[in-house]
């Protein structure tokens, strides 16, 4: 006889509450990958659907967010692979950027620079800087040792700094 771990699945109401509590964060992470509002919304929606279908397999409901962010990152990366294209910066997008961000030029440069980083470093930087996560939380999301996450973070920052010095 095999002992089974008591695994109480997350209820639909709990799932909805967990999603609503961090929906803005989920959107920002997705947007960090695709830099397009509608695509980011689609990625979050797809991730919510995937997570809902798989929620019964979540072994520890206390680890919901690392589990969800991992699905979100994988969904965003898959989306980028399927839709590898350049984003056209037309007048409407630029006007929206001016209204939304005081320093849109700097923001645009940062986004373009992040886009040139390898996906793993970009993910770590987005989660660390924009979502204010700890290295331990990021390590849990990426299923990597904390020191590896720190290396990805600092390597990515070093590349960004080098680009700033070249362009500055």
Automatic annotation (TrEMBL):
Domain RNA polymerase sigma factor 70 region 4 type, residue spans: 108-160
Ranges for domain RNA polymerase sigma-70 region: 24-86
Cross-referenced InterPro entries: RNA_pol_sigma-70-like, RNA_pol_sigma-70_dom, RNA_pol_sigma70_r2, RNA_pol_sigma70_r4_t2, RNA_pol_sigma_r2, RNA_pol_sigma_r3/r4-like, WH-like_DNA-bd_sf
BP term (GO), one: DNA-templated transcription initiation
Keywords: Sigma factor, Transcription, Transcription regulation
Pfam families: Sigma70_r2 (PF04542), Sigma70_r4_2 (PF08281)
Domain of life: Bacteria
Single GO molecular function: sigma factor activity
NCBIfam families per UniProt: sigma70-ECF
Membership in a protein family: Belongs to the sigma-70 factor family. ECF subfamily.
Name of the featured protein: RNA polymerase sigma factor
Species in which this protein is naturally found: Candidatus Flavonifractor merdigallinarum
């Amino acid at each position: 006889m095999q002992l089974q771990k008591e695994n109480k699945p997350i209820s639909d109401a709990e799932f909805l509450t967990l999603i609503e509590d961090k929906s803005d964060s989920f959107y920002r992470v997705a947007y960090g990958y695709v830099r397009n509002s509608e695509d980011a919304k689609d990625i979050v929606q797809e991730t919510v659907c995937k997570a809902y279908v798989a929620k019964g397999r979540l072994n520890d409901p206390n680890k919901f967010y690392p589990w969800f962010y991992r699905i979100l990152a994988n969904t965003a990366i898959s989306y980028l692979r399927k839709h590898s294209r350049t984003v056209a910066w037309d007048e409407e997008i630029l006007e929206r950027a001016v209204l939304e961000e005081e320093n849109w030029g700097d923001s645009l440069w940062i986004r373009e620079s992040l886009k040139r980083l390898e996906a793993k470093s970009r993910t770590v930087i987005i989660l660390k800087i924009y979502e204010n996560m700890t290295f331990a939380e990021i390590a849990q999301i990426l299923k990597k040792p904390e020191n590896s996450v720190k290396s990805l973070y600092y390597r990515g920052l070093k590349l960004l700094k080098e680009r700033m010095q070249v362009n500055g």
